[in-house]
Design a protein that fits this description.
- It is a single chain.
- By secondary structure, the chain is α/β, with parallel strands linked by helices.
- The protein has one domain: 3-Layer(aba) Sandwich (Rossmann fold).
- The chain has nine helices and five strands, in the order βαβαααβαβαααβα.
Length: 197
């Protein structure tokens, strides 16, 4: 299986690049943000709880998010692999993900981290607010989401770096240019795998 974590701050382009990765590598998309937005749209108890947190730009609790991921992995384990988008966002989530995958006899292949400067992130998120009308894309919430990323989520890089799975990629330029850089990382993994048996 090919299991990729697509990582980066809000506005780095994780969702856009995930769609291209799915198209080329036939992976199952697992976006915790999308699952949560779906719960909100369906007005489930979990959605009602999550809405308050998301609208402040804070993180939903590890237990809830890990439970959602576990369900999705169990439902799609027979595919080519997963692209994890917006998850893990804490070291605890990263540890839980490794455990869940190990139980299924598989592991994370690489964590691809999109590097984008903060001023560019804010610009992109404000543009997305106009195009898509996401309730957490307004300036105060955007600032808090970037703060939470810097203070909590960015540490997840160290977790994968220690395991030799961290691949930073320049997240600026055209969508195609960024995708070419990501594909080079993923194709490099394939070569390593086949030459080592
Ligand atoms: P996203 O679409 O990935 O930017 O997620 C939107 C919001 O959903 C985030 O700002 C968080 O409030 C919440 N969320 C999504 N994924 C996670 C996660 N892995 N852990 C905690 N909260 C999350």
């Amino acid at each position: 299986m090919l299991n990729i974590v697509i990582f980066g701050p809000p506005g780095a382009g994780k969702g856009t690049q995930s769609q291209l990765i799915i198209g080329r590598y036939r992976l199952t998309h697992l976006s915790t943000g999308d699952i949560l937005r779906n719960e909100i749209a369906n007005e489930t108890p979990l959605g009602t709880e999550a809405k308050k947190i998301i609208e402040k730009g804070e993180l939903v609790s590890d237990d809830i998010v890990i439970g959602m991921v576990k369900n999705k992995i169990e439902g799609s384990i027979d595919g080519n692999g997963f692209i994890f988008d917006g998850f893990p966002r804490t070291t605890e989530q990263a540890e839980a993900l490794d455990k869940l995958l190990e139980e299924k006899g598989t592991a994370i292949s690489a964590m691809i981290s999109l590097d984008v400067e903060e001023t560019e992130l804010v610009k992109r998120l404000l543009k997305r607010a106009e195009d898509q009308g996401r309730t957490d894309d307004n300036i105060d919430v955007i600032k808090n989401r970037i703060k939470v990323y810097n203070e909590v989520t960015s540490h997840v890089c160290n977790y994968y770096s220690k395991k030799g799975k961290y691949s930073p990629v320049d997240g600026t330029g055209s969508i195609e240019e960024i995708f070419d850089r990501i594909s080079a990382v993923i194709d490099g993994l394939g070569k390593k795998r086949s030459c080592c048996g």
